[in-house]
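Researcher: Structure prediction, please.
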Amino acid sequence: MTETWIGDLLDRAGAALLKLEEDGLFMSRFHVSPAIGASFAALRRGEIEAGLPLMVLGAEVVEDPSLDHDEFALVP
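Model: Predicted structure follows.
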């Protein structure tokens, strides 16, 4: 998995987040596959080691094994 791939996922999630907000909803959790969750955790290792929650796009990241590697779910 490459950072470019993660960038693509974040681009798609950002567009979905804007749509959600246009509908008057706000994301509280960002569900991703375990592989993406691990990639995010590796990128944010310092924050996690400092005791902070894993946050991406302003929401808590939740690993969801039911999602394929390129899928995500924004949970209001």
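Model: The helical segments are 3-22, 34-43, 45-49.
Researcher: Thanks, that helps.
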